[in-house]
Design goal:
- This protein is mainly alpha-helical.
- The chain folds into two domains: 16-62, no CATH class; 79-288, Rhomboid-like fold (Up-down Bundle), CATH 1.20.1540.
- Helix content is 57%, strand content 2%.
- It is built from eleven helices and two strands, in the order ββααααααααααα.
- β1 and β2 (49-51) form a beta hairpin.
- α2 packs antiparallel against α6, α7 packs across α8 and α10 packs antiparallel against α11.
- The N and C termini lie far apart (110 Å).
- The chain crosses the membrane at residues 79-98, 130-148, 160-181, 187-209, 216-233, 239-257, 264-284.
- Its main location: membrane.
- Keywords: Hydrolase, Membrane, Protease, Transmembrane, Transmembrane helix.
- It is found in: Membrane.
Amino acid sequence: MSVDGPAGSAPPEAPPVCPRHPDRVSYVRCQRCGRPACPECQRPAAVGIQCVDCVRDAARAMPATRTALGGRVREGKPVVTLTIIGLAVVSYVAQLVVPGFTQQWAFSPAAGEVEPVRFVSAAFLHSPGSLFHILFNMYALWLVGPYLEATLGRWRYAALYLLSAVGGSVGVLLLASPVVTQVDTSWYDGVVGASGAVFGLFGAILVVLRRLGRDARQILVFLGINAVIGFVLPNIAWQAHLGGLVTGVALGAAFAFAPRSRRLLVGVVATAGVAVVLVVLALVKYAGA
């Protein structure tokens, strides 16, 4: 009788493999969960090596780092600002290549009464005959947008931009006359541009900088120069600038001065409250037209 080995001996144990990559043998184990981790799944830790799953779970469990005004600290690019710029650029291209696109989405008090979406859509359009129009607005947006997005957080920043856009259109509506004359045709004149929303951002950043004790003189100078330009140069909807600015200041103040323990509640209530006020102002104006 032949004997291959000691009677009752166990078969050799299989080498450890990475759970995420079963085809890879690894004798290095995670210090937290004890599972094998291949070189691709290893992450250096204070003591030893951790696997990517444990690192991810630990990151989720950690409280989010917040800015002085409650915005979540994030790495990477300003997603909301870039999205707004991307939508404006795509819309501008559509204005150039799609017949009637500008007229379909531009705001006028008469058109807004029938199609309320124009209160917002006009903020993503610009004058097809002036490349400077979109370049200036997008440059201004890039100057203040990323800072506000980081300081306030994404959802409050997006709400600020959109409501300031609506506020700009409401400003045009409130200061327009439904009585058409040879001099005044503002009830039917189309308005396009992100200026109202951008002025809302400048109004908000003015409040935020003051709240944080920082110098806001450059913002005041910018607003003063643009206020003069709006009354001197033709074809500039200063009414939209004013409406957006007032909206941005109001909402920015609510966000900036909210108590630390009630920032979410104040943010939601302020956003809803400003939206309701804008809707009521528009309805009252249309009712009296």
